[in-house]
């Protein structure tokens, strides 16, 4: 695979015209410092409210005190993407996507949703771009890459086309379609913010980074249209997005918890449009929109951090930063100061690779006008949830063999059935055009053969290095087929006598099946 940064530099020819922007090195450093600081501030400003408001706005007080920023050192919004920067640095700033994927999968930190599925896929030998593709993941449209894409925009000031092309490589570790476009949109906003101070212009310009017919772009376009009609009432725009786009999060079926990239991306756009370049107001609106409040506030705040620079971030948000600037982020060898330093190193490399100049005190950037030129993709076209069959509905399942009842407890009281022996068998008749089996992965997980309408489809392996699938908002999708002809079908699962060499058992956990239909 080609050098990752070299791949980016090859897209300079897509720039429509030559426009240059000059920065002093001090000015650029201040913007980078502001970017990372605001990311830390934003994630902690919204941390306590994360998923406290589902399908409604958050209307309670939002508390802040300067020392709160230190807890950002523990947040996955930071250490997740810093792990990518560590890998890039480890390979002398020339890491390949394969190397990034490997280090991400084998890192010590825990993961959820699209990131977790990507880790499982990589363990199973499914590498990017397939590790985030819909045939191997029901999480392709999730928010994960959107959360982790900031650094790509940070290291590409004004080099927006290069940024979105790097996204098209890195993002495929865990995303596809709207999940990928979310990262492109966010990183494009960061890139543009280096030379454009008007957040409204930034949001509009960043839309050029993704295909206009994507549902992600349509959702952001609805935000912009509503803003034009109601420029002083963000709640009217929030309600429009809620009514039109909040339903049918395929990742978390039949639950108000929603980590769909476009919905949370809309909240970022709402915050930036109505925040009027005020950091606190922007973060507050992002939080009051609900759902993934810390991630959305952090993405939005980072845009303001670049615009304002560290010097212009209000003192009450940054006053404690010097006290922690040399403390490591969890699971990394990066500190705030080191993140700033490495970002500046990558910036200079990318500027030179894209027709700019780096002098003793001044940097000249050849501004790139973004334009999406890739192949449009949609993870699950025209699919909507139809119904689900939970294991508590025992009369709808046919189970043969050594199946046992199981509950995780501690707040998770859904009933599972566990197959424990080879040749244990499960059958489910359903009507639709897609199905997903939800359960768990674990160290004692086994393998099973899956049949649809008595035709073999694939062998699944639910072995994993740790328990994964606990709690109803993080079930493991252990099998899915979204390409069935509409109609009646039968799914059959038969536990195999084979198992992963490191597995301690043949267990297969099943909690429910979700059935999909064509829209």
Automatic annotation (TrEMBL):
Pfam families: ADP_ribosyl_GH (PF03747)
InterPro entries named among the record's database cross-references: Ribosyl_crysJ1, Ribosyl_crysJ1_sf
Protein name listed in UniProt: ADP-ribosylglycohydrolase
């Amino acid at each position: 695979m080609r050098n990752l940064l070299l791949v980016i530099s090859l897209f300079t020819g897509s720039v429509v015209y030559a426009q240059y922007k000059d920065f002093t090195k001090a000015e650029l450093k201040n913007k980078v410092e502001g970017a990372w600081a605001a990311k830390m501030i934003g994630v902690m400003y919204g941390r306590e409210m994360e998923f406290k408001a589902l399908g409604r706005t958050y209307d309670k007080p939002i508390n802040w005190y300067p020392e709160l920023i230190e807890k950002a050192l523990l947040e996955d919004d930071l250490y997740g993407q810093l792990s990518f920067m560590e890998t890039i640095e480890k390979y002398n700033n020339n890491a390949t996507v394969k190397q990034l994927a490997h280090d991400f999968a084998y890192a010590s930190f825990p993961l959820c949703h699209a990131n977790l599925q990507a880790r499982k896929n990589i363990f199973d030998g499914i590498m990017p771009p397939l590790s985030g593709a819909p045939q191997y993941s029901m999480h392709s449209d999730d928010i994960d890459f959107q959360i982790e894409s900031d650094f790509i925009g940070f290291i590409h000031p004004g080099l927006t086309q290069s940024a979105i092309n790097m996204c098209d490589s890195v993002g495929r570790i865990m995303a596809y379609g709207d999940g990928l476009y979310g990262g492109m949109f966010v990183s494009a906003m960061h890139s543009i913010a280096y030379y454009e101070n008007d957040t409204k212009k930034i949001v509009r310009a960043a839309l050029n980074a993704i295909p206009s017919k994507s549902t992600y772009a349509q959702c952001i376009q609805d935000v912009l249209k509503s803003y034009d009609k109601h420029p002083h009432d963000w709640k009217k725009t929030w309600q429009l997005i809620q009514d039109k786009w909040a339903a049918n999060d395929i990742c978390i079926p039949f639950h108000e918890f929603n980590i769909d990239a476009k919905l949370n991306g809309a909240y970022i756009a709402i915050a930036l449009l109505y925040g009027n370049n005020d950091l606190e107001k922007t973060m507050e609106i992002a939080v009051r929109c609900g759902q993934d409040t810390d991630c959305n506030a952090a993405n939005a705040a980072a845009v303001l951090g670049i615009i304002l620079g560290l010097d212009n971030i209000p003192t009450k948000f940054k006053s404690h930063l010097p006290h922690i600037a040399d403390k490591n982020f969890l699971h990394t060898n990066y500190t705030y100061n080191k993140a700033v330093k490495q970002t500046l190193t990558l910036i200079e490399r990318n500027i030179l690779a894209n027709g700019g100049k780096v002098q003793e005190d001044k940097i000249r950037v050849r501004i790139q006008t973004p334009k999406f030129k890739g192949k449009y993709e949609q993870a699950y076209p025209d699919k909507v949830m139809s119904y689900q069959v939970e294991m508590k509905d025992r009369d709808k399942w046919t189970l043969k063999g050594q199946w046992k009842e199981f509950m995780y407890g501690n707040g998770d009281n859904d009933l599972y059935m566990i197959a424990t022996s080879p040749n244990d068998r499960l059958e489910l008749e359903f009507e639709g055009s897609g199905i997903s089996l939800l359960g768990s992965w674990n160290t004692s997980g086994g393998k099973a053969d899956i049949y649809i309408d008595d035709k073999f489809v694939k062998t699944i392996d639910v072995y994993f290095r740790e328990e994964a699938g606990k709690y109803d908002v993080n079930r493991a999708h252990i099998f899915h087929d979204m390409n069935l002809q509409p109609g009646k079908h039968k799914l059959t699962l038969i536990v195999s006598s084979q198992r992963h060499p490191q597995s301690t058992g043949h267990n297969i956990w099943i909690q429910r099946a979700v059935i999909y239909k064509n829209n």
